[in-house]
Amino acid sequence: MKTIKKIAARACQTGAKALYGSIFLALLAGCSALPEPPQRATVYDFGPGAVPAAPAPQGMALPPLVLVDAPDIHDGRQALQYRLAYANAQELRPYSLARWSQPPAALVQQALRERLARERIVFSPNQAALQKPKDGRLPGVLRVQLEEFSQVFDAANASSGVLRLRVVLADAGMTGETVVAQQLFTARRPAATPDAAGGAKALALAAAQVADELADWLRQQGR
Questions:
Q1: Contact 164, 185 (CB under 8 A)
Q2: Are residues 68 and 173 in the same domain?
Q3: Quick one: which of 14, 75, 80, 152 could link to 95 by a disulfide (CB 3.0–4.6 Å)?
Q4: Do 21 and 64 lie in a common domain?
Q5: Distance of CA 51 to CAs 54, 113, 115, 118, 170, Å?
Q6: CA-wise closest residue to 78 among 61, 66, 95, 63
Q7: Domain span at 4
Q8: Within this chain, do residues 134 and 108 fall inside the same structural domain, yes or no?
């Protein structure tokens, strides 16, 4: 009788150990099945030195301008965009884990403002509304629209940052604006690496190039 009880006790102990083991394995399996946290996107801007500020030389200050930005063509989306020109140049694709710190149009406008502000006062539309005519004239108006801002791959390992900007220069009057000139600026800068980091750097350089070209063009217009 005692032998039977001992066998039963051992069986119970063995069964309990097996049960606990099964529960432990189930918990481990459940932990391993939990989803991994999503990867965080890398955020880019033009960098602190992309368009360095410098004071205007004495006696070289140019007439003030109002810088007006058109609505963003990408509806404010901030993902870095690229095109595979060797496959389908018409398809604009977003990097899944790379984005801009602001919408592209806002970044380009900031680069333009910093560059132009080296030589003149640059107003926003809200600031301009508070200005009184000086010598019977209001500040000129510069309207800019970003038409292209993407990394274009000509081959799998070769790409460039491409920026296209349309600008309209107008004189402001009490009854409206008179168009003075308009121009399309295009910059294409090679990317050092065929990835989002290379594209972001190339586009920052393209923005700096267009800002310099725009400043030269304005001087040619006598503005």
A1: yes
A2: yes
A3: 80
A4: no
A5: 10, 10, 7, 10, 25
A6: 95
A7: 1-34
A8: yes
Whole-number Å distance between alpha carbons of 167 and 135 = 26
Nearest to 64 by CA among 142, 6, 129, 4: 142
Q: Do 18 and 47 share a domain, yes or no?
A: no
The answer to whether 52 touches 106, Cβ cutoff 8 Å, is no
**Do both 12 and 98 map to the same domain?**
no
CATH of the domain at 119: 3.40.50.10610
Helix and strand tally (H, E) in the chain?
5, 8
Locate 79 and state its tokens. Answer: 């993902």
DSSP 8-state code for residue 137 = B
**Residue 219: both structure tokens together:** 């001087």
In total, how many domains does the chain have?
Answer: 2
pTM: 0.77
Beta strands in the chain (DSSP E): 42-44, 65-69, 79-84, 89-100, 122-123, 140-155, 158-173, 176-190
Residues in the chain: 223
| Of 166, 168, 177, the residue nearest 221 (C-alpha) | 168
- Over the stretch 93-152, which tens digit does the pLDDT of each residue have? 999 999 999 999 999 999 999 999 999 999 988 776 556 666 567 889 999 999 999 999
Alpha carbons 165 and 203: distance in angstroms, whole number: 13
Secondary element (H or E) of residue 155: strand 140-155
